[in-house]
Write a structure and sequence with these properties.
42% helix, binds guanosine-5'-diphosphate, seven-stranded parallel beta sheet, 2 domains, alpha/beta, two-stranded parallel sheet, binds NADPH dihydro-nicotinamide-adenine-dinucleotide phosphate, single chain, 11 helices, Rossmann fold, UDP-galactose 4-epimerase, domain 1
Length: 328
């Protein structure tokens, strides 16, 4: 019997890589897609990976429980990966209520749809290292207390605990992956790694003269999305649902990440980076560093792609994209 997987957020970065992985593992892959007036472009990441024709998309929205009930009833998924969210921290101060509706209450909608229509399915919740925020321990692990620092992180904390609660209340196979930042050529261009790779490509090709950034002293534990979606899948392979930190265990400043990108094309970042307070945040997460020993031991997971290979891949992809769009 072919296993059925249902992904919310299939049009996002992780959704695209996870869809590719699940197709390679022999799953039938279904995704929730929200109605847009830009029909035809929302699946650009799936197309970039060459999997758009192989997935089945269902019209729905995380804030519309009736749509989720209908989709889960139709698909009868064996596995549900809840990746959809308003996922950009900076936007969460500008749209705090939408962020709460989608990123927090949306998780309950998805869990309710599963509880009512497919209670035997296995559920993955996309939790975030942003929940650690103002860090309470130098190395963050599953037992580290949370201290969220943005409306996004507060909403993710709700999503995390409601997943734990549904597991404990209803015996659902619901797991939460506390993933540290992960990037790829398919990362949204508003996030700092992709903003840098795209900016470097444009400067190198003579289309821009500077790159404006905010707090470049912030530190993140960055990995590759391709490695991280494998951890999601491995969590649902376990007999018992649980929570896992997924991280590389290496933290790097935005400044040093940026230097890797500029040096890759033979440029000196000091000549191009302009600090612009417009990109400072009302409250900052200064440093994140994850301890993924539990995932490594229990899931047999480990990251394969180091930061400098990731950043070079992203810059090369943007050089290619910018060159092609300039030729159009
Ligand atoms: P993206 O921002 O790339 O993708 C978000 C997805 O959610 C998109 O498919 C988007 O659809 C969808 N979405 C947004 N709002 C709704 C809604 N109301 N109803 C249905 N779908 C909706 O995020 P990533 O792929 O990077 O991340 C995946 C998940 O993991 C997110 O929940 C994110 O918060 C979380 N996470 C990510 C980390 C990272 O470093 N990438 C780290 C830790 C957690 P559309 O294409 O229409 O906008
Ligand atoms: P986040 O960890 O989910 O907020 O991921 P981001 O990639 O958006 O931000 C990572 C870090 O880079 C944060 O500490 C930001 O404050 C910092 N940063 C510095 N300059 C910028 C910028 O211009 N854009 C973004 N998105 N982040 C920046």
């Amino acid at each position: 019997m072919t296993k059925q997987a249902l992904l919310t957020g299939i049009t996002g970065q992780d959704g695209a890589y996870l869809a590719q992985l699940l197709l390679n593992e022999g799953y039938a892959v279904h995704g929730v897609i929200r109605r847009s007036s830009h029909r035809g472009v929302e699946d650009h990441r799936l197309r970039w990976l060459g999997v758009a024709e192989k997935v089945r998309l269902h019209d729905g929205d995380l804030t519309d429980l009736s749509s989720l009930l209908r989709i889960v009833r139709e698909v009868q998924p064996d596995e549900i990966y809840n990746l959809a969210a308003q996922s950009f921290v900076a936007s969460s101060w500008r749209q705090p209520i939408l962020t709460a509706n989608v990123t927090a209450v949306g998780v309950t909608n998805m869990l309710e749809a599963m509880r009512l229509e497919a209670p035997k399915a296995r559920f993955y919740q996309a939790s975030s290292s942003e929940m650690y925020g103002l860090i309470q321990e130098p190395l963050q692990r599953e037992s580290t207390p949370f201290y969220p620092r943005s409306p996004y992180a507060v909403a993710k904390l709700y999503g995390h605990w409601i997943t734990v609660n549904y597991r404990e209340s209803f015996g659902l196979h619901a797991s939460s992956g506390i993933l540290f930042n992960h990037e790829s050529p398919l990362r949204g261009v508003e996030f700092v790694t992709r903003k840098v790779s795209n900016g470097v490509a444009r400067i190198k090709l003579g289309l821009a003269e500077e790159l404006r950034l905010g707090n470049i002293d912030a530190k993140r534990d960055w990995g590759h999305a391709k490695d991280y979606v494998r951890a999601m899948w491995l969590m649902l392979r376990q007999e018992k649902p649980d929570d896992y930190v997924v991280a590389t265990g290496v933290t790097t400043t935005v400044r040093d990440m940026c230097r890797i990108a500029f040096e890759h094309v033979g440029l000196d970042m000091e000549k191009y980076v302009v600090i612009d307070p417009a990109f400072y945040r009302p409250a900052e997460v200064e440093v994140l560093l994850g301890d993924s020993s539990k995932a490594r031991k229990t899931l047999g997971w480990e990251p394969k792609i180091p930061l400098d290979a990731l950043i070079k891949e992203m810059v090369d992809a943007d050089l290619d994209r910018v060159t092609r769009s300039a030729a159009d």
